[in-house]
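Changelog-linked ticket: 2-acetamido-2-deoxy-beta-D-glucopyranose example.
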Amino acid sequence: MRLLSIITTSLTLFFLLLFLSIHLQAYTLEDNFTISCGTTGIVFDDERTWTGDADTKYLSGGQGRTVLTEATTQDPSVNQVPYTTARLSRSQFNYSFPVSAGPKFVRLFFYPAYYPSFPRTDASFSVQSNGFTFLKGFNASLNADAEATKTIFREYVVNINDGEILILSFTPSQPNSYAFINGIEDTYPAVSVEYRYRIRSGVSSGDWQSWH
Ligand SMILES: *[C@@H]1O[C@H](CO)[C@@H](O)[C@H](O)[C@H]1NC(C)=O
Ligand SMILES: *[C@@H]1O[C@H](CO)[C@@H](O)[C@H](O)[C@H]1NC(C)=O
Ligand SMILES: *[C@@H]1O[C@H](CO)[C@@H](O)[C@H](O)[C@H]1NC(C)=O
């Protein structure tokens, strides 16, 4: 029991320090991106402005082999932005975001649906960022079904060093599978995100393994 309490105290202290260090950075970083994949121009959901990625400004590799399309049918419970449109590919593609140094929250939004020529259950892929693996062999439909949800979002923290660019690599995990993405949000820690981050960090989550 005593050991458990020491571990709990150390963990609490660790997350408190983590929280404080992120808190201090929150007001010095100014870059954030909210990208709706597979669309053009600016689109809105109820809360935010999303930028389409059709002009490939944020893509840095493999974009020529990607397809921009819309889900064949969309569940009425699913928000149109960013979930209607997607960028999909049977080979690797990369996004890159020029960001300032420091911790970045990266959120990935997925709607595992049927897309023309891309069957729902064929999506299985890895996502890597600056040497870290966010998702490995991620079977999107399997995960959505297991979580009894239509859409999936995942959050990560990645530390960007001076002069580094934030890169997100999407790689199909099998010869016959594909990778896709509906939305990407990359932000410095704002207060609400920070709060959620602290709450989330108190529970054990597979996603936390990717933090550094
Ligand atoms: C970044 O996000 C914050 C809130 O999260 C917002 O106030 C600010 O305008 C955004 N900056 C840019 C450049 O989009
Ligand atoms: C994507 O980025 C990774 C890591 O920087 C690089 O090794 C790979 O060649 C890039 N892929 C493409 C298709 O450009
Ligand atoms: C994803 O999981 C589903 C359900 O188990 C399976 O039918 C499908 O083959 C898997 N897809 C890949 C590409 O592994």
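Closing comment: Example verified and attached. Residues 24-29, 191-212 have pLDDT under 50 and may be disordered. Residues 121-122, 124, 139, 141-142, 174, 177 surround 2-acetamido-2-deoxy-beta-D-glucopyranose (ligand 3) (CB under 6 Å).
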